[in-house]
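User: Here's a chain of 407 residues. Predict its fold as tokens.
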Amino acid sequence: MRGWRAIDRLLGFLPVALSAGALALLLSQNPFATPYLERGTEAVALELQAALSREVTPEWYISRMDQALLAEDLDAMRMVAATGARHGIAPSPALLGRMQALEARETGALAAARDCAVCAADITACPRVALLAMCGVTVEMTPLGDLNALRRAAQAGIAGKEIDRIEVALAGVGLGATGLVLASGGTSATVKVGATSLRLARRMGKIGPRFADELRRLSDVGFRPDKLDDLALGRIGIDEVADAAKLARVGDLASDLGHVAAKTSLTDAVLMLEHVDDAADARRLARLSDAAGPETRATLDILGKGRAFRALVRLSDLALGAAALLWLVAGQILIFLGERVGRLILALLRVPVRRRARAETRHTGRHAPAALRPEPPLTRPQPRLRPDPPLRRPVVHRPMLGHTPAE
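Assistant: Prediction complete.
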């Protein structure tokens, strides 16, 4: 009996032991060291398209379009209209009339000239995104904009005021873009556009606190304002005004943002910087722009930063297998413990029942009257056999000589 109990316990513990051994073998491969793998560009595009198809519905279209029209936000109206058109959603005649009225009111000749003048005077007051590239960045995209930023920093240093190190670093990257080609892995135009977009985003207040701290950390480039005049005259290079190695780190960041601007537009790149918190986010945004292209800004607005960036990666097969095996082992351990605890509780519940039954049996057997005492079990009585009589010899009557039986 004890042998069968030992075999039963061994068989109950065997699945847990085998699963735990397999888990230990799998964990020895460090499956969670790099649990996420980057998806390819085509896979990211398919994932984003599926996510957008679930979000962009006629109800979403009407709600977002009403918000844009009530706020008289032409850029938002155009983005919602383009996104709906790509997903086969068209406005109703009444809604289309409101859209056309806002378009005519905001894009007339007088309105365009007025808004362009506002953008040229103060880029932070530019009323529309489209005018930002046409009217607000004409000078900023030339070396004059970078030299002007360095000039302001030099004047602040001479006056004893605090120098805007971020502005200096970005202007230095813009001027030395050609020298940063090898360091950043991009082209001089890409680096220049990225640095300019960062400068514009700062002036427009599109950079969050975390990204501002990141830029502040990267912008310690050892600027020497006393050599700015020689730089402007072309006598020296940018590496003599600032540390070229430190400028290269800023150039890497500018290259990623310039890549985003190349896939979308400069204005979209500036506005999307509010979703960037550090250099890693800038790299993710560059990969997202490869897959989404001109729809990158709309994708971020609709899905949000978290969902959009999660589409860039997937769990590795090794990590999925390890997680599934962990779940299996945990479930088996719980089942094993539950079965053992259940048996123990059942045995404890049986103890008082058995004691009561034994007590009742003893009480019934000793003190009950004879009429109520349990009868003995019926047994078949043994037959009483009579002993065989003693053997006797039969009496043989023999006739006597001289006599006949008749006599």
